[in-house]
Design brief:
Elements: E1 12-17, E2 20-24, H1 31-35, E3 38-45, E4 49-56, E5 59-66, E6 68-74, E7 82-87, E8 90-94, E9 99-104, E10 110-117, E11 129-131, H2 138-141, H3 144-151, H4 155-163, E12 170-172, H5 175-182, E13 195-196, E14 205-208, H6 215-219, E15 222-228, E16 233-239, E17 246-260, E18 266-273, E19 277-280, E20 285-301, E21 308-310, H7 317-320, H8 323-330, H9 334-344
Antiparallel strand pairs: 1-2, 2-3, 3-10, 4-9, 4-11, 4-12, 5-8, 5-10, 6-7, 6-9, 8-13, 14-15, 15-20, 16-20, 16-21, 17-18, 17-19, 17-20
Helix pairs in contact: 3-4
């Protein structure tokens, strides 16, 4: 398997229109995504931009990087539409097969990062979408004769509906239609579907799993927000779940990342900056040091029940192993090992 871990910047623009654009980290440019069945993309909606209703072949997490908006979702086992407000820092899990639409209700761009598991998808490393309407939609593809019967309407009425599908994927709504969507009634149980990721003053890493947010179980994913001050270290850690991969997106700032892989080899030692995507395979140990401006990262893990183990923390295996064994491991004096363990327990 190719473990080329170099972080990637500026995903490929797959589509652009009046309403916004869709950007994809393509597997051809980032083979590790394909090898580990990961998808990553960015949806950018201009003011009044509207991503037409669609479903996808893979579960994913949406994380709002900037702006405000509204999302609509109909789950695969439901006939009820959930209307969900969105703002910076929100996460919204999107299960496979659920129909969703996205709208920018603000005055500036709405930018949403999507990261998910494509192991059950058509194309490893990519999300495949099925739009209901538009020039690439399901409704416009069927013959008018068939849809006349399916809609239970007169042929002329059905043809008027079908022939008006001029938009493609992302459109810009006229003022009245934008106003209508903005005034839709918000669902009464928003907290069931949307959570705000907020950094903690007492913790560098805030982890959100299926235990704290039930809806994550639906997508089989979890996520975390990491905020480091200037020159602050995120201690070495690794995922101990089988096939639990970590995907990091640098939201702001700069820093240095080191990763140790198989056979104790340092497989990555590089600088990262805002906008870069980084993939860390299972059991690979990653550590980070923020630059002078600090660094903020959002990460997704491909399990809803992650086990993240530190290498030099209180709950680490190193701290649990008996003193005599640790002394033999490092081949140094007991006094030095005791000092090391006392530092770990601070």
């Amino acid at each position: 398997m190719d473990f080329e871990l170099t972080p990637k910047l500026a995903p490929k623009k797959l589509f652009a229109g009046d309403g916004g654009s869709y950007h994809l980290w393509a597997p051809s440019d980032f083979p590790l995504l394909k090898n580990l069945n990961l998808g990553a993309a960015i949806l950018l909606l201009n003011p009044a931009g509207f991503a037409l209703p669609h479903c996808a072949d893979s579960s994913k997490l949406g994380y709002v990087l900037q702006g405000v908006g509204i999302a609509g979702m109909v789950l695969d086992q439901s006939s009820k539409e959930e209307i969900l407000p969105l703002s910076k820092g929100d996460i919204l899990p999107v299960p496979t097969g659920g129909v969703s639409w996205w709208f920018n209700s603000g005055d500036s761009d709405l930018v949403i990062l999507f990261i998910g598991d494509t192991s059950n998808g058509y194309v490893p490393g990519e999300f495949t979408y099925f739009f209901l309407t538009g020039t690439q939609g399901i409704f416009s593809a069927f013959t008018p004769e068939l849809m006349t019967g399916a809609l239970r309407m007169e042929q002329q009425q059905a043809s008027t509906i079908l022939d008006n599908q001029n938009g493609t994927l992302i459109i810009k709504l006229p003022p009245q239609e934008a106003k209508n969507i903005t005034h839709l009634q918000i669902s009464s149980c928003v907290d069931k579907f949307v959570k705000k990721m907020v950094s903690s003053s007492c913790c560098k890493r805030v982890l959100l799993t299926g235990a704290e947010f039930d809806f994550l179980e639906k997508v089989g994913l979890s996520c975390s927000l990491i905020k480091l001050e200037a020159d602050e270290l995120l201690s070495p850690s690794y995922t101990a779940n089988s096939k639990a991969v970590q995907v990091f997106y640098v939201v702001a700032g700069k820093g240095k990342v080191e990763i140790v892989g198989m056979n104790g080899k340092l497989v990555l030692d590089t600088e990262v900056e805002a906008g870069k995507l980084l993939v860390v395979p299972t059991f690979f140990t990653v550590a980070m040091i923020a630059g002078q401006q600090g660094m903020e990262l959002f990460s997704v893990l491909t399990t809803s029940k992650p086990v993240i183990k530190g290498l030099t923390t209180k709950d680490s295996a190193l701290n649990a192993i008996s003193l005599a064994v640790v002394q033999s491991m490092f081949a140094v004096s007991p006094e030095l090992i005791q000092e090391m363990k006392s530092k770990i327990n601070i």
